[in-house]
Amino acid sequence: MxxxxxxxxxxxxxxxxxxxxxxxxxxxxxxxxxxxxxxxWAGIGHVHSPDGRGxxxxxxxxxVDQGDRxxxxxxxxxxxxxxxxxxxxxxxxIRKSFQSALKLAPPPYEWILVVPKTLTPGERKFIVxxxxxxxxxxxxxxxxxxxxxxxxxxxVYRYLVRxxxxxxxxxxxLETAPILGGVDDLNNRLSNLRxxxxxxxxxxxxxxxxxxxxxxxxxxxxxxGAASDDPVTVELGFKSDADDADLASFMRSLGFGxxxxxxxxxxxxxxxxxxxxxxxxxxxxxxxxxxxxxxSRTEPCEAEFRFVDSLGAVVASQDxxxxxxxxxxxxxxxxxxxxxxxEIEVDFAITVNDVGAITSCEPxxxxxxxxxxxxxxxxxxxxxxxxxxxxxxxxxxxEVSIKGRHAFTFTSDYEIDNGLADLASxxxxxxxxxxxxxxxxxxxxxxxxxxxxxxxVARAVLEGYLIESPGAANLNxxxxxxxxxxxxxxxxxxxxxxVNVPMSDFALALGDRLLPIADVRATTSCAKxxxxxxxxxxxxxGQEEPFATVMRPAGHRYFLLYKVDRIPKxxxxxxxAWWTLSGIEQPGEPPTV
Length: 593
Hints:
Blueprint: H1 25-41, E1 45-48, E2 61-65, E3 70-75, H2 87-102, E4 110-114, H3 121-128, E5 137-141, H4 143-150, H5 154-161, H6 182-198, E6 204-211, E7 214-221, H7 226-229, E8 233-238, H8 244-256, E9 261-264, E10 269-275, E11 283-285, E12 290-293, E13 301-308, E14 314-328, E15 331-338, E16 342-352, E17 358-363, E18 368-371, H9 378-392, E19 397-402, E20 405-410, H10 418-437, H11 449-462, E21 467-468, E22 475-479, H12 486-495, E23 497-502, E24 507-510, E25 513-516, E26 520-529, H13 532-540, E27 547-553, E28 560-563
Parallel strand pairs: 3-4, 4-5
Antiparallel strand pairs: 1-2, 2-3, 6-7, 8-10, 9-12, 10-11, 13-14, 13-19, 14-15, 15-16, 16-17, 16-18, 19-20, 21-28, 22-27, 23-26, 24-25, 26-27, 26-28
Helix pairs in contact: 9-10, 10-11, 12-13
């Protein structure tokens, strides 16, 4: 929307005069006071009118601030005060209302009497005299106070005196007049039209925008209780063959206040009609695309997920952020952001107290979950997947708290993907490797099966184990056959020999990165020549040219790797590690018990 406030000129702002509060009549006066109270507390407290017009147990309007302090507004439409002949009767009414308010639990912090006339000193003395040291503060709003307050609510003032401002009707006819004053003239006309439109309702303002040949407008609540005080309804019709996914999302947003903008295309919409108390806001739209987006009842705030076992012990927990909380006629919906990459939405049935605050909620329906794990560091990836794993464990219930207070408990229906477990394993391996090598970089976009093995091998080597490596399947060497003793060669061909050689170029290749690891050796208790017969012939022939020979382990598929400075010196303490990677079988791996 546009913002023309910076171009307003003097003369556009309206200065209010006094209002004929008595002339509003009892119903009109009560309604205006309720609107003003709700404006007064918008955003800083909850305001509630017990029966819509007041008169419930000494409470016409109840305001509860963020510190849970209660203020009771008692409206008395005494057009001629409460002196003279009616003094006794009306003073009894006021005293009775005050005493009824004292019986509230908890008792009010302040009691405010609202009347349409300026009170006499004697009348004020009576009201103030109702107070005692242990009771609530007493405040009086009479016509002088109301005039002062309404000065800060110009649209309410315009609403009250609009019949006296018939000249504003001419604003509607100014579209054919030349704009001689340039931008200021245009701004003044738009501002006047905006002010006039906003004065049509005490509860709803109108926002307008012009884009090329389209004029768009939307209703804006003037205070949080507008929807209940002056409902605006929308009648919708859809084709029976409309996309089920579109309608399902739409109905969930409408019924539960679910987060996100939902669009139903015009081809699926048969009827759109807006109905309200003012003719300007009544309209029917043809060929309409319907877009709905629920507004959150709260600003983002801290939350926590706790996973509890059958004995009540907390086995895991994770802080989160409540980003959205709203409700509709069918229930409510909450949306949470966890670890910046996981989004969870839970629908539930709600219970609301007398000031509109949610007191309880029971989850129901499938949980909505989405996540993005790309472009994360290994430790971040591990934390995200650990949380998802906890969420998928049906042996534990999940307790959710908001701002330190328990909100609801549920058992997730989420089933973790097997690929996430593989990713978690690779992320943890890489995290250990990075910490050991003093490196830090994000996970690659994809990790192949071979890279998963290489990560496990590199981690085991750094942690002081021996482990088979696909990168050490063969040991290649060049020999001069003429210099080899034939007896020694025959012994090697029959029995093999132990091998323990340095891997001078050992490194972990991951994506486009290469991480060298120093002091790594390849070993096996018995290796044999792959091409022994050819080498024997070359030895017997006394060949002087170099011969390329290959040795392979006799008891393993691959040579065992280890890091010299991480392996115990006592050979008996050498311990072999296994890949133990899901979906990947290590040759010769012992069976699991």
